[in-house]
Amino acid sequence: MKKPTVILTDNRSGKSYEYDVLDGTRGPSVVDLRSFFADTGMFTYDPGYTSTASCTSQITFIDGTKGELRYRGIPIEELATEHCYLETCYLLLKGMLPSKESLQDFDLELRHRAFLHEGLTKLFNAFPDNAHPMATLSAAVTALASFYDDHLNVSNEEEYQEMARRLIAKIPTIAAFAYRHSLGIPFIQPDIDLSFTKNFLTMMRAYPGGKMHLGPKGHEEIKEVEVRALDTIFTLHADHEQNASTTVVRGVASTGAHPYVAISSGISALWGRAHGGANESVIAQLEMIGSVENVKKYIAKAKDPNDPFRLMGFGHRVYKNFDPRAKILKTLQDELKEELHLDSRLMEIAGEIEEIALSDEYFISRNLYPNIDFYTGIILTALKIPKTMFTPIFVIGRTVGWITQWIEFKKDPTSKIARPRQLYTGE
């Protein structure tokens, strides 16, 4: 069988160039243009990399047309409903779901690695009380590179795994400390008797001495339904192929920088409103709209080409159908409505927007379906997590994906330093 190729012809010179077509196990094929400049003296032009595959990967697959997302070949629907977040972490890092014994060992190791070096805790005092937790989180992760400089030259699987597990365990502690510092209240140390997700909620919400905060009905403990909801959100955020922040992580990795510096760069990229910061913007927008009566006015503004207003939480760069993660959260939101006492006013506004958008030709024709950010905010609000912590929650879930992508990049013998070129239009 003849090898598939693509022939490109330059109609100025009449010369033709032939390039191999490479097939993956799923998704579109790619044209191998690695010799294009050497052959033609030209660059390809693709702003935003809308048609460019930057690497090969065996981690995550997305079919945006079908609304499909898989980690290591397993559908996200199965992972989010039948497995916990730590099982998903193990799957991404090791390529398989853990046995019961392996999961127990993995869980126990993360519990013990969750504590921060006392020297690192002093860093938080350098930030003002009103510092956004994302700024503190990014700086603290960079600082981790100085405490674990031995991870700069990891060379074998055991070292990769130690580096990855250390960071996955410490990110929730750093995030919780950043939040508590922003409030000017004492830190709550990790508790090795608690699971990964429950421990994070405890570090966020407990008073010193281990007591939980007092709600309107007196002593209030963290409910298992709250743990399940947040654990599901972590799973849905664990990885998402070559998105903006992951591309940044791989790009920084290509320079030979410390892996924690690469992850810190990903955290900074995620903070952007067009990326992970969108979930914070969704709730802020729902609060701005204020009531169901105002929804139609803002829908009209979103449809007006001369109005800069943009409806947050709709549309996605890759998904041209319903975001599968959004479907899962929509179902979860409906299930937890009574148990978590979801904000009825925000839900009514969001429900009205959703109903109009899913039946309006303007949104349908532009593939503007609700994405994951549209639903996370309401659930996180019910978990007593403030808007400023929405993106750090995203970071906690995504850390394992970034680290797995970093490892894959470092193991790839064909990897090179990232160095795109340009179409110069200056003087």
Topology at a glance:
Elements: E1 5-9, E2 16-22, E3 30-31, H1 36-40, E4 60-63, E5 68-71, E6 74-75, H2 76-82, H3 85-94, H4 100-113, H5 118-121, H6 133-147, H7 157-183, H8 196-205, E7 214-215, E8 218-219, H9 224-237, H10 244-253, H11 259-270, H12 278-289, H13 295-303, H14 324-336, H15 344-359, H16 361-365, H17 372-382, H18 390-411
Antiparallel strand pairs: 1-2, 2-3, 4-5, 5-6, 7-8
What report would you give on this structure?
With 427 residues, the protein is mostly helical. It is 51% helix and 7% strand. It is built from 18 helices and 8 strands. It has helices at residues 36-40, 76-82, 85-94, 100-113, 118-121, 133-147, 157-183, 196-205, 224-237, 244-253, 259-270, 278-289, 295-303, 324-336, 344-359, 361-365, 372-382, 390-411, and strands spanning 5-9, 16-22, 30-31, 60-63, 68-71, 74-75, 214-215, 218-219. Belongs to the citrate synthase family. One of its GO terms (cellular component) is cytoplasm.
Summarize the structure.
The protein has 427 residues and is mostly helical.
Overall 3D geometry?
globular
Q: For the residues shown, what is the average pLDDT?
A: 91
Question: What is the fold-level CATH name, i.e. the topology of the largest domain?
Answer: Citrate Synthase, domain 1
Q: Oligomeric state of the chains?
A: single chain
Sheet with the most strands?
3 strands, antiparallel
- How many DSSP helices? 18
InterPro entries: Citrate_synth-like_lrg_a-sub, Citrate_synth-like_sm_a-sub, Citrate_synthase, Citrate_synthase_AS, Citrate_synthase_bac-typ, Citrate_synthase_sf, Citrate_synthase_typ-I
GO molecular function: citrate synthase activity
Active site: 316, 373
Pfam families: Citrate_synt
